[in-house]
Amino acid sequence: MAVSGFEGFEKRLELNFSGDDPAIGIGFRQLDFQSLEKVLHAVQCTVVSALGNQHFDSYVLSESSLFVYPTKIIIKTCGMTQLLKSVPPLLHHAATMDLQICACRYTRGNFIFPEEQPYPHTSFEEEIVYLEENLPENLCCRKASVMPSKLSSHSWHVFSACDQSQMVMQKSPYDDQLYTAEVCMTGLDRVLAQKFFRHPNDGQTADSAGKEMTESTGICDINPNALICDFAFDPCGYSMNGIDGDHYSTIHVTPENGFSYASFECVASMYGDIVEMLNKAVQIFRPATMTVATKCTSHEVWMQVAKAIKPLGMKFRSCTVDDFPGTGSVVFQVFTSRRK
Ligand SMILES: C[S@+](CC[C@H](N)C(=O)[O-])C[C@H]1O[C@@H](n2cnc3c(N)ncnc32)[C@H](O)[C@@H]1O
C-alpha cells in the first residue's frame, strides 16, 4: 500500500483484436493460466478468484479485475500496480495466437495519491509516451485527452488508438445499443462503508466473507441474473465480478475513511435497465462525489444516467463530451451529494 493510503482509482486498459472468428474460435481464451499469471506479475498483481461461461473468462485480481474474451481483453487495476506493463507481453501472446491488435483504449480518473504512482504512471504524459512506444504502427489513429469537470479534483483521462479498419468499420445495430458505464465514487457514506470491513476472527474465508458482503449490502440485487464471483480482503476491502451472458459487471470497494472509494462498471443496453442498476449501485455507497463515464453515441444515454442519479439526492455538476478514434463519443458526468 502507498504510504498515505490505498489508491482506489483504477487504471483501465481495453485491447481489441482481429484475426479470430469469435463464432468458432476461442482466441485469447486459449492463453494458459500460467502465461496469464506472468502478465499479471509484470503488472504487480495476482488472481484471487475466477469464473467463466461460454462467452468469456473473468478474474478477480488482488487489485481489481480482468476479463478475457476471444478478441478482447479488459484489465482494470488499482493501488500501485503498473498496468501498462501488461501491453508488451499481451501483444507478444496475441502474435503467437495469430491475433492482430486493432484497437486500444486506456482510461482513468484522477489518482487520490498521484505522487505515489510508479513508472509508467507518474503522469498522464508518461503513460501516453509509454503507450506510444509500445503499440504497433498499425494503430495509426490516436488521440489522448483529459476531459475536465467543474471539480478540479475530478477529470477523466482517455487515450484511444485504432487501425484504419476501425475508423471505417460499420458497427452492427447491436453494437450501437450497447455501451460501457464506468462509475467512480469517493467519500462513501461511513456507515455503509463499514459493511466492507471483516469482523475480527470471523472464521470465514475470503470467499465466504465476500459472499456475505454481496448479500448484506444488496450488491446481489443490482443484476439478479448475474453469476457473481466475490472476494473480501482482510481487514477490509471488497471486489466482485458479475457475468450475465456476454455482459460483465464489476464492483471494487476501498472502505477506509479518509480515502474511501468504490467503482462500478457494467455493460448496458440502451433499452435495458441501466437506470435501475445505477440507482441500486449508488444507494449501496451514497458517495459524496461520483463520476460516470459512458462510451456511447446517444444523447438518450446521458439523460438516462442523470435520471438514475438525481433522485438519490445527487446534484448534477457538469457534463463533458469528446470524440475518440475507434471509440466514438465519451461522455463524462459529475455529480455531488447534497448532504452536508
Ligand atoms: C483490491 S480492493 C478494491 C480495489 C478497488 N480499485 C477500489 O479501491 O475500490 C482494495 C481494498 O482492499 C484492501 N486490501 C486489503 N488487503 C489487500 C491486498 N492484499 N491487496 C489489495 N488490497 C487489499 C485495501 O486496503 C482496500 O481497502
Descriptive account of the structure:
This protein is α+β, with helices and mostly antiparallel strands and 340 residues long. It has one domain (11-337): S-adenosylmethionine decarboxylase, CATH 3.60.90.10. Helices cover 24% and strands 36% of the residues. It has helices at residues 33-43, 87-96, 124-134, 164-168, 173-177, 190-193, 206-217, 274-285, 299-309; strands at 11-18, 47-52, 57-61, 64-69, 72-77, 100-108, 141-147, 156-162, 178-186, 227-232, 238-244, 247-254, 261-269, 289-295, 314-324, 328-337. An eight-stranded antiparallel β-sheet has the order 2-3-4-5-1-6-8-7. An eight-stranded antiparallel β-sheet has the order 10-11-12-13-9-14-16-15. Helix 8 (274-285) packs parallel to helix 9 (299-309). It is globular and about 50 Å long. The two termini are 30 Å apart. The mean pLDDT is 92.
Summarize the structure.
This protein has 340 residues and is of the alpha+beta class. 24% of the residues lie in helices and 36% in strands. A hairpin with a 3-residue loop joins β15 (314-324) and β16.
CATH topology: S-adenosylmethionine decarboxylase
What's the pLDDT, averaged over the residues?
Answer: 92
User: What is the total domain count?
Assistant: 1
Tell me the series of helices and strands, N- to C-terminal. Answer: EHEEEEHEHEEHHEHHEEEEHEHEE
> What order do the strands of the largest sheet run in, or round the barrel if closed?
2-3-4-5-1-6-8-7
Oligomer: single chain
Largest sheet: 8 strands, antiparallel
Q: Kindly, what is the distance between the CA atoms of the first and last residues, rounded to a whole number of angstroms? A: 30 Å
Q: Structural class, judged by helices and strands?
A: alpha+beta
> Which percent range describes the beta-strand content?
35-45%
| Helical fraction | 10-25%
Low-pLDDT ranges = none
CATH-scheme architecture = 4-Layer Sandwich
The helix tally amounts to 9
The tally of beta strands, per DSSP, is: 16
What overall form do the CA principal axes indicate?
globular
Full CATH superfamily name: S-adenosylmethionine decarboxylase
Distinct small molecules bound, one entry per kind: S-adenosylmethionine
CATH class: Alpha Beta
Protein name: S-adenosylmethionine decarboxylase proenzyme
Pfam families: SAM_decarbox
Family: Belongs to the eukaryotic AdoMetDC family.
Cofactor: pyruvate
